[in-house]
Amino acid sequence: MSIFMVLVIVMAIATAGYFIGRQRAVSKEGGNVKPHSLPHYHGWWVFLASALPAVLFIAVWAAATGVYLERSAIAELPTRTADTVIASQSLELGMVSGIARGLDRLSDAERANLPQTFAELQPLLASKGVALATEGQDYMIPIAVEWNRNTAWASSVGGIVAIVLALAGAVFGLSGVNVRARARNNVERIILGALIAASGIAILTTIGIILSMLFQTITFFQSVSPSTFFFGTVWDPRFAAAGSGGSQGQFGLVPLLAGTLYIAFVAMLFAVPVGLFAAIYMAEYASRSVRSVVKPLLEVLAGIPTIVYGFFALVTVGPFLRDLSAALSGGYAFIQAQSVLTAGIVMGVMLIPFVSSLSDDIITAVPGSLRDGSLGLGSTKSETIRRVVLPAALPGIVGALLLTASRAIGETMIVVLAAGVAANLNINPFEAMTTITVKIVNQLTGDLEFNSPQTLVAFALGLTLFFITLAMNIFALYIVRKYREQYE
Amino acid sequence: MTDIALNPAAPASARPARRDIGLKRRYAAERRFKLYGITAIAIGLFFLVALMYSVFSNGYTAFWQTEVNLAINLDPKIIDPDNKRATDPNVLLTANYPILARNALAEKLGVPTTNKPAMRELGKLFSEGVRGQLRELVVANPSLIGTTQSVWVLTGADIDSAFKGQIDLTVDQTRRKVSDQQVEWMNKLKGEGAMSQRFNTGLFTYGASSRPETSGLGVALIGSLYMMLIVLCLSLPIGVAASIYLEEYAKKSRLTDIIEVNINNLAAVPSIVFGLLGLAVFINFFHMPRSASLVGGMVLTLMTLPTIIIATRAALRAVPPSIRAAALGVGASKTQMVFHHVLPLAAPGILTGTIIGLAHALGETAPLLLIGMVAFVANAPVTPLDPSTALPVQIYMWANEAERAFVERTSGAIIVLLIFLAVMNITAIILRRRFERRW
Amino acid sequence: MNLMTERNLEKAVNDKMSAQGNAIKMQGKDVTVHYGDKQALFGVSLDVPEKMVTALIGPSGCGKSTFLRSLNRMNDTIEGCKVGGLLTLDDEDIYNPKIDVVELRARVGMVFQKPNPFPKSIFENVAYGPRIHGLAKNRQQLDEIVEKSLRRASLFEEVKDRLHEAGTGLSGGQQQRLCIARAIAVSPEVILMDEPCSALDPIATAKVEELIDELRENYTIVIVTHSMQQAARVSQRTAMFHLGNLVEVGDTEMMFTSPTEKRTQDYITGRFG
């Protein structure tokens, strides 16, 4: 019995419960007593009483049996020795489950005379659409067969229990149908529970982010010491062969952090004046018609995916700067196509709309009475802006700039395509540097082995990035919030 | 400090001497300041135009592909030299179809098939994709064998570039990718009308390929579609439910404060961090398949959720309290009030926010790289569990290819992506204009 | 209360003196104001005599604030606002393109309905005007201007120990007096006040009114007010507006004792408004 089948049956029972419940509620009306809830609330209460426990049970059962089956399969695998062919246990397990999946698709006749060697089995399964790696071993076949048998057993037991639960729930719900029964309150309580659960997902996500990265980072720090990670000035993870004692890999954060901050700095250097002045002009000078055209156009810049900016940097800005520098110096291109400058400028363009729309909001939030006060004294518009509006808006703008900076630090696609991959530690903006995000992508694309430091370092980098941006965001949101209160 | 300044006591008839309040200097500053603002806006708009120009000028040609019309003789001696096709189905699958196309082309251009070097040059004129094209034709209808069929076949990527004028033909032929001989043939075919640009349907149907002319966005489009559906189905109900709780039910407490700060923070967490989360939790912990659009969709859901929650809460807050009071006043329960009155009134705002959130998710690349969507997937995924790529990821992969033809394809793919985004955003704007209500 | 009656008596004496008639400082002839398609003022002609307090009264939305804001062209800041007719300051058309609006506002200062001190220190608030206009040659002069202005606004004694604290930290009445000091610091010829006491409590109001009375010695003042009593207390001339028209103008005493127009009478006796 597949999970899907069980779900269909449970839903059918619950739906039937809905109609019967509603019917019963209708039939009980008509006396002198005013019914507490409308009939369809009784229907829904029966539906929920029947479906909810059953579905929850199915979810828990599926997860639990999954873990149990995996455990028992691992227990049956031969002890790992130095000359085990397959690189890791998880790979081994993956193959067993692959075989099991393939066996599932065989007909009864084929299953009756199952080939006992993997070499024979592989083409048979391949013909059923399950392609398996060639390193499969003969001993996996009985384990897979056993696995399938256990799965079938577990799912039938689980299915029966779920259906019984659904029926029991329906009966319970129906027995409670009564003129004065508070079906609506029951239903609403469940709805509220669902609403609370939904808002819990936001917290769960944060916890998930922190925990998942923390665990991998702790594993990483078991092979590489935190001090060499945080203070190392060389990034060269290639030589860190896992477990081949002695040669520690070089996982220095410093060049990556320097590159990240440098590029973000160049981007801010470009974006802040442009975005701020654009915002000032739009908030204080532009007529409504100009504003209604220019503002959406600038916001288009914010809607363009970062990969497009990356491509723009790669094929247009980078080569342009290189050719420009070659023309200026008479042949020698002192600006590399992939450089801090290229990435910084293009990232700056991406940030313009962030700076401008955030600052625009903040500038327009400055009360008009302050402007009137200043203009009434005979100051020019620019004097009013520079001496009254901007100082009043300053905390909010600082918050907005912090938010923008945190976006610059976490930006990935532009730097992946435009900044280069060489982990240099230099101060020349015309040369390539790399960033934390680039290295996370580098370390995690391609084949992964979850217990090598080369993979795990990405999580340590991610955690570092997360905390840097988190600190900036919290601080920025705090400032912005505080600022908003000031004028409310 | 002079007394005169504070004492405009002189009679009005004898006007006070005009004070010098530095007007000239101050107006110069005013003009400068205004100029800075205009310059800043000009810079922003300049880059918008430059970016769009760069993409469109590089990319619009990608929607046409050069093809050559050949009268191909489906010669049974070449397709099935041993005449075993009745018994062995593999014969038709493995036959040497490119030879057929080459011979047809040689005949058309009057090149003797015995001229080996010329034939080799000739063979590079059309794409290797002709193998699959003819195979499909023959396998679908084996009775065509022995007949002569008029078929449009793709040219090679270099010929395509040359035909579109993207290769500088004035440089010496050893330093470019098409030979003079090929150019001569190309021009001849063009003159006869046998070679021309046709609408590039392959761009939307082909999967990954190492040859530019046979690589397309097919897999990426399906993958992105699956992901968008998953994001929509998960993030909209969860986001709306969470917003309703926070906005309508939750009392202000330490916990709701934490949730609030949390959501604002999640909206600002770098997207790549969500990729790490997906990799560690969904793939490493729950053993979900790598490269699957299901995982991609779930990661993007977590990323989009804060955006939708923030938009939904704003929409709920915009519904005036008087509506709530009216509903409660006629005896509706709080839940009835929310679902019967507040939610329908907030729906346009919620929908707008959702579409904008989806548009963001559609363009997001970084987290998808980490969960293995950078994959060479040639066959269209059937379910969300099959390996696939996504539109922006495909752009990333093509951007890393060096060939000119791939630059064209990348730009073409970006145009497709931008059109999708534009449609989504315009829909959102229209929705907002149409249903916006001022209370 | 005792103080108030005393002041009223004194004022009555003053009024008699002013009835001799001062020179005309500002003049409006057939002034019209449009906000977009809506007309707010329909041909108002009004003289503002020098060194007197002219009160503009009338029910809400009657155009009195609009007229006031036309006098130093604060209406320019509102999009779609058009002013027609003639408005002069010392016989010069202030809407003449040759007239500089910045200079005009330096001569015709304004105090607003709600106290709007800048989020800066008390000192900086007052020093702002002299600074932007370059009225002080050095720090010492600036200090003097600030002190004198604060003294004239009867605020100096209250804030002299905390000149460098935020102006927003003062009480409402102090804030409004700070705004008046800020306006005085520029040494304007005319001060426009747009319901300067509407956000203040009675005690603060009394202080500000007292201040207005003192300022009359050196400045021409135009004040918009909602309160009949206030107009009676502080002004020598009163102009009554209704629906964008000037109903009646004359000596305050006359207006309140024997108005010629029925509408004025009704308004003063509280029949509408």
From TrEMBL, chain A:
The chain crosses the membrane at residues 6-21, 42-64, 157-179, 191-215, 261-285, 297-321, 333-355, 388-409, 456-480. GO terms for biological process: phosphate ion transport. The keyword Transmembrane applies. It is found in: Cell inner membrane; Cell membrane. Keywords: Cell inner membrane, Cell membrane, Membrane, Phosphate transport, Transmembrane, Transmembrane helix, Transport. One of its GO terms (molecular function) is phosphate transmembrane transporter activity. InterPro entries: MetI-like, MetI-like_sf, Phosphate_PstC, PstC_N. It holds the Pfam family DUF3708. Gene3D superfamilies: MetI-like (1.10.3720.10). Coiled coil: none annotated. Residues 257-476 form the ABC transmembrane type-1 domain. One of its GO terms (cellular component) is plasma membrane. Its main location: membrane. It is a multi-pass membrane protein. Part of the binding-protein-dependent transport system for phosphate; probably responsible for the translocation of the substrate across the membrane. PANTHER family: PHOSPHATE TRANSPORT SYSTEM PERMEASE, PHOSPHATE TRANSPORT SYSTEM PERMEASE PROTEIN. Belongs to the binding-protein-dependent transport system permease family. CysTW subfamily. This is Phosphate transport system permease protein.
UniProtKB/TrEMBL annotation, chain B:
Residues 221-427 form the ABC transmembrane type-1 domain. It is found in: Cell inner membrane; Cell membrane. The keyword Cytoplasm does not apply. This is Phosphate transport system permease protein PstA. One of its GO terms (molecular function) is phosphate transmembrane transporter activity. GO terms for biological process: phosphate ion transmembrane transport. The chain crosses the membrane at residues 35-56, 225-246, 266-286, 292-316, 337-362, 412-431. Keywords: Cell membrane, Membrane, Transmembrane, Transmembrane helix, Transport. It comes from the Bacteria. InterPro entries: DUF3333, MetI-like, MetI-like_sf, Phosphate_PstA. CDD domains: TM_PBP2 (cd06261). Belongs to the binding-protein-dependent transport system permease family. CysTW subfamily. GO terms for cellular component: plasma membrane. It is a multi-pass membrane protein.
From TrEMBL, chain C:
GO terms for biological process: phosphate ion transmembrane transport. GO terms for molecular function: ATP binding; ATP hydrolysis activity; phosphate transmembrane transporter activity. GO terms for cellular component: membrane. Residues 26-268 form the ABC transporter domain. Coiled coil: none annotated. Gene3D superfamilies: P-loop containing nucleotide triphosphate hydrolases. The keyword Cell membrane does not apply. It holds the Pfam family ABC_tran. The keyword Methyltransferase does not apply. SUPFAM superfamilies: P-loop containing nucleoside triphosphate hydrolases (SSF52540). Keywords: ATP-binding, Nucleotide-binding, Phosphate transport, Transport. Belongs to the ABC transporter superfamily. This is Phosphate ABC transporter ATP-binding protein (PhoT family). It comes from Phyllobacterium bourgognense.
